[in-house]
Amino acid sequence: MAEIREEYVDYNGFKTYCKIVGENQPGKKTLLILHGGPGDCHNYLLPYAEMADKYGRQIVFYDQIGCGKSMIPHQEDDFYTYDLWVNEFYAVRKALGLDDIHLFGNSWGGMLGMLCMMKDDTGVNSFVINSSPVLIQTWLDEANRLIGYMPEDMQKAIAEAERTGNYDTPEAKAAYDEYYKRHVTGVYEKDYPQYLKDSFAGVGECYMIMQGASEFVVTGKMRDWDIREGVKNIKVPCMALSGTDDEGTPLVIKEGVDLIPGCEWTLIAGAPHIANLTHPNECMEAVENFISKYE
Q1: Tens-digit pLDDT profile for residues 186-221
Q2: How far is the C-alpha of 205 from the C-alpha of 218, rounded, in Å?
Q3: Domains in the chain with CATH codes
Q4: Of 97, 137, 176, 213, which is most buried with the most CB atoms under 10 A?
Q5: What one-character DSSP code corresponds to residue 135?
């Protein structure tokens, strides 16, 4: 089994938690993985750690500031900005000596990665964008379209929860559990593996500040997310990775694929948003096959 090391990197007066899995075999470069949210933590992406043993490649995770093991005391809303996490990306890389890497980002992590690649892609050889929108409105339109395929009573329960802000009624919980099973996790909450439970339990206050109360209405700072022009200037080789059952639907993903120069696309049949939960081998193989072309 690959050795696991844990380190804390000083950043912005706080400490960013990092997990380093394995060492690179000759000819391999480190894969740095960015988690979603904003406000989640790295745990739900831990199946990718198996790539260390499977492919002889070092895998590095970190919990973005305000998340998981990088949780910090309550901050004013203006503390949390895109630049906070963009600058952290470079600080973590510098502290860990990650100057020659591949990059992977899931959901918000892919959005963060795109911001970073638009700013400075030095030392990044390839980038896997896993189910990340370039325009938030397309994401929201598609999420609400997917709700329309659910049983009518569940559609009503979700609408009522969004209207009142009360997500704790039995009807609302059942409806969201069904949506998550179909499009986010691929399994019902009762069947969540421990690493997913740990990740959802560690969501920080920045999720409410950046996203909002739920998946279906963005009331936070991300409500104006639109990087369609910026991604046209991304130069690093990119691959989009998503699932057919993903809340990041093919329409959402295609919008980015069509704009990012030369972007490839791997679509996994039957996979939800957290594709590595239900299709770990397909995900790891797709990532390795792509990034290994750019060692």
Answers
A1: 999 999 999 999 998 878 899 999 998 887 888 899
A2: 15
A3: 4-137+194-294 (3.40.50.1820)
A4: 176
A5: B
Residue 81, number of CB atoms within 10 A of its CB = 14
The residue length of the chain stands at 295
Catalytic residues: 107, 246, 273
Order of strands across the sheet with 14-21? 4-11, 14-21, 59-63, 30-34, 101-106, 124-130, 238-243, 264-268
Task: Classify 88 as helix, strand or coil.
Answer: helix
Q: Which amino acid is at 265?
A: W
CA dihedral of 118, 123, 128, 129, whole degrees rounded to 10: -20
How far apart are alpha carbons 225 and 103 in whole angstroms? 21
Collapsing DSSP to helix, strand or coil, 104 comes out as strand
Q: Tokens 């069904």 label which residue?
A: 178
Signed CA dihedral, 195, 33, 277, 145: sign only: positive
User: Hey, what are 116's tokens?
Assistant: 């970073």
